[in-house]
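Mods, move this if it's the wrong board.
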Amino acid sequence: MASDQDALDPRAVLDHLPHRFPFLLVDRVQEVVIDERIVATKNVSFNEPYFEGHFPGDPVMPGVLQVEALAQAAVILASVSKDVQWEAGGGVLLMGLDKVRFRRKVVPGDVLRLEVEVARVRGPTWRVRGQASVEGEKAAEATILAAFTEPAG
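Not the wrong board. Structure tokens:
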């Protein structure tokens, strides 16, 4: 398990997320405070597969993927805090989204800063508040509810 204030490089991020390319939306973790908060980043590049259709000539990162990036940061926080082992067959399920707002466009070349803090934990269920920003300007925010599932068998 990582300790408070640890950063995770891109390879270590893979140890704490079940997602893989092209759906991996967290590149690096700058800071983790176990059971409290996480700060991570997503480098938005022209090579993202969704830019081919969203929108040709004026590429914009879909808002739903910004929220997904926040959710993935939350999964990393919970994984580090609970020492979850994805290889064991456990998982995480998105249960709900509240107070979702989009404030600015996110475009290729932006670095999306993902900040997530725990609002409440009840057993395997986590409620977190997340904010995505670019250069200090809020891009998206949401309250996310998710639950960890036990390995089958």
